[in-house]
């Protein structure tokens, strides 16, 4: 069965600092990997996805993520955090193909200090 | 593009009431829609997968008679929580997929509170 681990429940950074959110997955084949962001009381917005090809993926809002097969990781990064980035971030793995199911990590809550 | 609308955004009702939540894909046809449940400070748990014109596939432990799902068209799926009780209070989120491996797009969720 596929699974996702986000080791950090809560991260606090200062505005302007760099950010890395960790994500490790378990899946038997090449996974589809996603990062979503959720603001309080809202649905999820897709930041970026990895299906195949270049292992460094660029997303919206200045985020990027790198797929490392050897480490089963898909960490999310941003060089300079803005106060508006404060939210909950979820990493997810999908089984691929059509009608695939997503398995989500437990999320990382990001707090940004001024 | 790829907007998913979920309605209502919040429901407060008495125990024993049935509540219907709608999920619409506004600018694309969704071959598949998914329903999730999210407890406070928890991740999303998939409840069921619904394909247009066929019966929904429920995840283990989800009561299909409690959570009725109808996917009558390629742009609309509904989740009805029947005879809701306080333990059904939660945040319910739907998502829709265009197919061909495209990512799921999520609605803004429905906060259900059963008194």
Q: What is the average per-residue confidence, as pLDDT of chain B, rounded to a whole number?
A: 92
Write down the overall mean pLDDT of chain A. 91
Low-confidence stretches of chain A: none
Query: Per the principal axes of the C-alpha atoms, what is the gross shape of chain A?
Result: globular
Please give a structural write-up.
The complex is a heterodimer of chains A (114) and B (115). Chain A is mainly beta and 114 residues long. In chain A, 0% of the residues lie in helices and 52% in strands. Chain A contains no helices and twelve strands. In chain A, strands 2, 5, 6, 10, 11 and 12 form a six-stranded mixed sheet that branches. In chain A, strands 3-9-8-7 form a four-stranded antiparallel sheet, with no helix packed on it. A two-stranded antiparallel sheet of chain A has the order 1-4. Chain B is mainly β and 115 residues long. Chain B is built from no helices and eleven strands. The radius of gyration of chain B is 13 Å and the shape is globular. Chain A binds chain B through residues 32, 34, 36, 41-46, 49, 51, 90, 96-107, and chain B through 4, 6, 31-32, 34, 42-44, 46, 49, 51, 91, 93, 95, 97, 99-101, 103-109, 111.
Question: Could you outline the blueprint of secondary structure elements for this entry?
Answer:
The complex is a heterodimer of chains A (114) and B (115).
Chain A lengths: L2 E3 L4 E5 L4 E3 L2 E3 L5 E7 L5 E7 L5 E3 L5 E5 L4 E6 L8 E8 L7 E3 L3 E6 L1
Parallel strand pairs in A: 2-12
Antiparallel strand pairs in A: 1-4, 3-9, 5-6, 5-10, 7-8, 8-9, 10-11, 10-12
Chain B lengths: L3 E4 L2 E4 L5 E7 L6 E7 L5 E8 L5 E2 L8 E7 L2 E6 L8 E8 L7 E2 L3 E5 L1
Question: Summary?
Answer:
The complex is a heterodimer of chains A (114) and B (115). Helices cover 0% and strands 52% of the residues of chain A.
Summarize this structure as a short list of keywords or feature phrases.
heterodimer, A: 114 residues, mainly beta, six-stranded mixed beta sheet, four-stranded antiparallel beta sheet, 0% helix, B: 115 residues, seven-stranded mixed beta sheet, 11 strands, globular
């Amino acid at each position: 069965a596929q699974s996702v681990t986000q080791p950090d429940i809560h991260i606090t950074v200062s505005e302007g600092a760099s950010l890395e959110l960790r994500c490790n997955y378990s899946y038997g084949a090449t996974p589809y990997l996603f990062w979503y962001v959720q603001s309080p009381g809202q649905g999820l917005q897709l930041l970026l996805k990895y299906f195949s090809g270049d292992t460094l993926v660029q997303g919206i809002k200045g985020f990027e993520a790198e797929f490392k097969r050897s480490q089963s990781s898909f960490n999310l990064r941003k060089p300079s955090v803005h106060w508006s980035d404060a939210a909950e971030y979820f990493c997810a793995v999908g089984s691929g193909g059509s009608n695939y199911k997503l398995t989500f990590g437990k999320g990382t809550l990001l707090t940004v200090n001024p | 593009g790829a907007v998913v609308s979920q309605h209502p955004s919040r429901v407060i009702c008495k125990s024993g009431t049935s509540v219907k939540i709608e999920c619409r894909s506004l600018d694309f046809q969704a071959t598949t829609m998914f329903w999730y449940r999210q407890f406070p400070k928890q991740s999303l748990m998939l409840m069921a997968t619904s394909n247009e014109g066929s019966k929904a596939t429920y995840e283990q432990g989800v009561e299909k008679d409690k959570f009725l799902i109808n996917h009558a068209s390629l742009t609309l799926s509904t989740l009805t929580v029947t005879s809701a009780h306080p333990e059904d209070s939660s945040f319910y989120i739907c998502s829709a997929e265009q197919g061909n491996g495209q990512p799921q797009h999520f609605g803004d969720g429905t906060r259900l509170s059963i008194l």
